[in-house]
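Entry for the shared binder. Reason: the reviewer on the internal report wants the predicted structure included alongside the sequence.
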Amino acid sequence: MSGTIQHFFDPDTSAYSYVVADHSTGRCAIIDPVLDYDAASGRVGNAGARRILDYVREQALTVEWLLETHLHADHLSAAAWLKGELGGRLAIGSNITQVQRTFAGLLNLGEDFPCDGSQFDHLFEDGERFQIGELQAQALHTPGHTPACMTYLIGEVAFVGDTLFMPDYGTARCDFPGGDARQLYRSIQRLFALPGDTRVFLCHDYLAPGRDEHRHETTVAQERQENVHVHEGVSEDAFVTLRNERDATLQAPALIWPSIQVNMRAGELPQAEANGVRYLRIPLDRM
């Protein structure tokens, strides 16, 4: 890829965000930015996202896209705040409408909440091509972790969201509403069909046992050969059994309800109520 990639790590959520820039045109995309959120106090902040903002301004870049790989359940998105500061089009996969319908029902948001993806500027269809300056890019649907999961293939680089983790950690969970381990396996096989030297950039690294250094990059070849859940030779049925058994042991993410409510609104906080205060809902016994 002729552009440059700068990563940003959020230690509170083990999440990676990226700025992909085409310096020949000064255009860039921001991928999966994180909003600070303190669950105990209910306070939000922009300190982490401001690092991205400062970098974009220091490099004299123009934001063309803000890309979400999926509706995150472990951190709040800073995309809306960054869009307000820097401009650009905020985009996600077209299956976000399915996720919105599911969680609008679980949260009892009523008819006032539109489940048509209109909170976003653009909904990518599977295989849709786009550009970041002169960088050629393609949006690939890779569902399984959620129905709306996307991989953004930019040149010879794939931003895979939560579909894959580092080979020693494995793959994403599939037990959220709309998740499907069989779908995830097939999405991963689609990624494994890419050239082996395709660079793979991850949304999270939770540190596998025995490793004390966070990493954000691997390759398709490394994932094919070494992924502890889905390396070459692992059948679809074997993966589904492994994934479902593992998911049954996992706790819900600590920030799932705050994250979902903000991220299904494209990173916007809920509207303030009559007293001028914004509120997040926590449904009881629904997860």
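Summary line for the report: The chain has a mean pLDDT of 96.
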